[in-house]
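Technical annex, item 7. During the second reporting period the consortium partners agreed on a shared format for inverse folding records so that results from different sites could be compared directly. Each record opens with the tokenized structure and is followed by the designed sequence. A conforming record, contributed by the partner at site C, is shown below for reference.
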């Protein structure tokens, strides 16, 4: 059908053109061609429809990275339904909220998760629960295997949601960002072009596929290009070093690059076929950029984005400088401004909140019209919560965040959520959670608490008490017990003072 805005309708054209060329290269575990991928997606789409999944329905998945997982994503789009991936680190306790909010028709989890989720599944009215294991097997894949591969791609309008991605809120509950087909397709096309994808490009894919970076940015650009992907289920520095000589493009969070640099045997030679290293999701330190260039001969291309707006800026691929510590220019078709709290645009070079407008900007938060309204200006600009400057020539530098957010190894952690859990623990008076510089994760979660009652609060006990309640990447790597938290005259906890006091925690 013509004019179908469904992103899958666009992707399947390149799948058809790419035919028997390799989509996924799993090393010893084999290869999957674009033609085989198309068949599997068709089968999966028929399996989803056998559970009643149709346009507008949510499909929630908390599964490990696998080809079956990618097929599930693509098949959900093919059916016109909304894909809702969840970080595999989330605990069963955390999942209850997402299920109640998203009300998926179908939930896909590993078998060993089913029991713990029974209550939440019932309460949320989830109609079917199917399994998918780390190797891609499970009841859903079994069902898909016996299905026909023919399946017509559902017709979708540009602003129909394709995905629902939860982002934690500075205060309170997580918000589901509704990402439309147009958001995805416009961003994919722009990046494919801007980053100079060429026939024969090979993408090393070692990112998780439950977030924007691995699921959209990396997969979509490779798919549009009909590229081969060297597909790894996670970032293992040794495997990545082994595979780099076969790759031309890699996308990663800064931790990927600091881990490569930490290896003495990482050399220019491994990067001989590389064309492009992209970094994003968290700030790349200028010293990492510099050290990487010295060692590999490549200037990492840093770009900036977020769940609600996909990719927003990028350093130039060609025809300009990649400047360390800056995130480059607004991508084509995207408008940016730096504004004060009242939304008044500031002069070049002034620090304010970055606001963004364009076809990349999401439709709004799922079932939260007030929250959505709060974060948009009347003229359609979305308020990112990142503090930035825009230079005369349009170059953007992210200088901080107005949102109280910690980014650890590319995963976002909202202090409020951790503080709420800490405050419920026996023996803790009050708590403040801060992000501190960390050599591996960039920033790391640290808690500062006061003790009440007869039992003194103890670091190890506190961390183990949080285990099971919060995903492990959110757990404080250190807990400090203090007599009192510093407060200003208004009674507000002075986190800057705490960050300064404990700044050297992870040094050396
Ligand atoms: C794992 N751990 C972390 C962590 N990742 N702790 C803090 N921060 C993290 N990011 C913990 C685990 O809980 C475990 O602790 C221990 O570290 C080892 O776990 P692991 O699974 O072996 O970790 P590892 O594989 O080394 O993972 C590190 C990582 C990974 C950096 C490779 O976190 C990663 O792939 N991050 C990428 C995140 C990402 O894709 N972000 C994009 C978001 S989209 P324990 O206690 O259990 O032993 C976005 C928009 C944009 O931001 O602009 O792109
Ligand atoms: P998420 O909500 O997980 O999509 O995370 C988005 C946030 O990551 C942004 O709002 C920024 O704070 C941060 N971010 C992404 N890329 C960069 C970058 N290159 N430099 C600094 N911060 C970044």
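Designed sequence (site C submission):
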């Amino acid at each position: 059908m013509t004019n179908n805005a469904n992103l899958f309708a666009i992707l399947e054209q390149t799948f058809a053109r790419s035919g028997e060329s390799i989509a996924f290269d799993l090393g010893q575990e084999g290869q999957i061609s674009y033609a085989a991928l198309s068949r599997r997606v068709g089968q999966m789409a028929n399996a989803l429809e056998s559970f009643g999944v149709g346009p507008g329905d949510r499909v929630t998945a908390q599964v490990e990275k696998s080809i079956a997982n990618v097929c599930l994503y693509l098949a959900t789009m093919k059916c016109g339904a909304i894909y809702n991936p969840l970080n595999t680190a989330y605990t069963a306790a955390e999942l209850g909220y997402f299920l109640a909010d998203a009300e998926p028709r179908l939930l896909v989890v590993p078998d060993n998760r089913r029991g713990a989720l029974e209550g939440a599944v019932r309460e949320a009215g989830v109609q079917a629960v199917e399994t998918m294991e780390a190797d891609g097997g499970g009841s859903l894949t079994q069902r898909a295997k016996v299905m026909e591969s023919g399946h017509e791609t559902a017709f979708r309008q540009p602003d129909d949601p394709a995905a629902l991605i939860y982002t934690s809120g500075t205060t309170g509950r997580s918000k589901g960002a509704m990402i439309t087909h147009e958001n995805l397709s416009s961003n994919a096309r722009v990046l494919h072009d801007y980053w100079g994808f060429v026939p024969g490009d090979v993408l090393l894919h070692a990112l998780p596929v439950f977030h924007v970076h691995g699921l959209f940015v990396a997969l979509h650009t490779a798919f549009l290009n009909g590229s081969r992907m060297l597909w790894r289920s996670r970032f293992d520095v040794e495997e990545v070093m082994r595979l780099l000589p076969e790759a031309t493009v890699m996308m990663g969070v800064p931790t990927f690059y600091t881990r490569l640099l930490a290896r003495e045997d990482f050399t220019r030679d491994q990067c001989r076929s590389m064309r492009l290293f992209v970094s994003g999701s968290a700030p790349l330190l200028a010293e990492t950029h510099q050290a990487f260039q010295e060692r590999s001969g490549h200037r990492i291309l840093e770009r900036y984005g977020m769940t609600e707006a996909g990719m927003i800026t990028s350093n130039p691929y060609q025809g300009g400088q990649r400047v360390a510590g800056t995130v480059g220019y607004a991508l084509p078709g995207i408008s940016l401004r730096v504004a004060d709290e009242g939304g008044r645009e500031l002069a070049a070079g002034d620090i304010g909140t970055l606001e963004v407008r364009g076809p990349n900007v999401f439709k709004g938060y799922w079932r939260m019209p007030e929250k959505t309204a709060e974060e948009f200006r009347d003229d359609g600009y979305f308020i990112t919560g990142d503090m930035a400057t825009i230079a005369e020539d349009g170059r953007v530098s992210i200088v901080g965040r107005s949102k109280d957010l910690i980014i650890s190894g590319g995963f976002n952690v909202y202090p409020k959520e951790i503080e709420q859990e800490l405050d419920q623990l026996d023996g803790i008076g009050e708590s403040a959670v801060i992000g501190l510089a960390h050599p591996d994760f960039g920033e790391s979660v640290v808690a500062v608490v006061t003790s009440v009652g007869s039992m003194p609060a103890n670091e190890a006990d506190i961390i183990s008490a949080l285990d099971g309640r919060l995903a492990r990447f959110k757990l404080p790597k250190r807990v400090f017990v203090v007599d009192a938290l510093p407060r200003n005259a208004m009674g507000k906890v002075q986190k800057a003072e705490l960050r300064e006091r404990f700044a050297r925690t992870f040094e050396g």
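Residues 59 and 106 are 5 Å apart (CA to CA). The chain has a mean pLDDT of 96. All partners now use this format for quarterly exchanges.
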